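User: Is it possible to get a 3D structure for a protein together with its bound compound? The compound here is DP6. I've pasted both below.
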Amino acid sequence: MSSSTETKSKLTAGWESPSNIALVKYWGKHGRQLPNNASVSFTLSQAATRTFVSLSPKLTEERIEVEFAFEGKPNTSFASKIVKFFSGIADDFFPFLKDYRIVIESSNSFPHSSGIASSASSMSALALCLCDLENQIHGKTELHEGFYKKASLISRLGSGSAARSVFGHAAVWGNHDVVIGSSDEYAVGVDTLLHPVFKTMQNDILIISADEKSVSSTAGHALMDGNPYAAVRYAQANERLGKLMDALQSGDLATFGKITEDEALTLHALMMCSDPSYILMEEGSLTVIKKIKHFREKTGIPVYFTLDAGPNVHVLYPEEYGQEVSQFIISELKPHCHQGRIIRDSVGSGPIKIS
Ligand code: DP6
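Assistant: Yes, that's possible. Here is the predicted structure of the complex:
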């Protein structure tokens, strides 16, 4: 083995990156994965993807050579998606992807088909590994601001919402007047703007159905192009984000909850009035939403819901109300969950490098 081949065979990067839950939703995009409005999310702590990427000498003449295993099993369909993704980013961002055989191993901390979207955690974990390998190739060891900015940009090219997973606690993706440094190209971390109560936020995911999504996010975004309310929606999202940032900073739970719930229902309303239309909630989703509202009105406890583009309901509340809310969830909401399944999560501090 030549010395350069030996060096090549030693490069490995490992990252664990979390999922995130949007408060103001990204729904509608243009160009190369650019958002039609700014979005903001909480970064989660438990739902995460662990990915290892190693570079070794190439075995074939393929332009991009990828081997991919998910949870220990080779997965050729994912591998070809990754080849396509890498082909699109190699020339502009990581020319080294053409020089090596790339072996990727990935696993999720949450069960497969639990109804949790994994593109945010998986694409951000992969992007972080690529930026880490690039650093190693250039002999760099420190993780500067520029490292996370590039990781967020690459994550975005893989899946828009993944751009936000790179930062702990909360992140904004999309250019917005009130968020200094915000950009359509990458997300920015906004944890320094958060009132401490939001760092204690719990996020219990009620699994109403574990079925595959009836419409992919990509197809859902595309439906916004023909949606008659699209322009009004983008303006509304940007206005809500401005108000929500104020509430996140001041600790105004009532405004936070109102905007978060309105956003979830707006996302679903947009799908209902797309052509073709989609109803993504199940009966159980509506029942638990009504129960959450009723419980909040009755007790005054600040517990709110949000939804992704699917039937599962995320219950958000500060940790200090954990006992009362847990009792309520177990007695009133759990019976509406698929096999009584609930995934308990909370706001978390962001990706971790695995040495
Ligand atoms: C409803 O990021 O999954 O979760 O960019 O096509 O990969 P692609 O879409 P994706 O869309 C997420 C949509 C959402 C809202 C959000 O996370 O902001």
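Residues 1-8 have pLDDT under 50 and may be disordered. Residues 22, 25-27, 33, 39, 119, 159-161, 217-218, 221, 267, 308-309 surround DP6 (CB under 6 Å).
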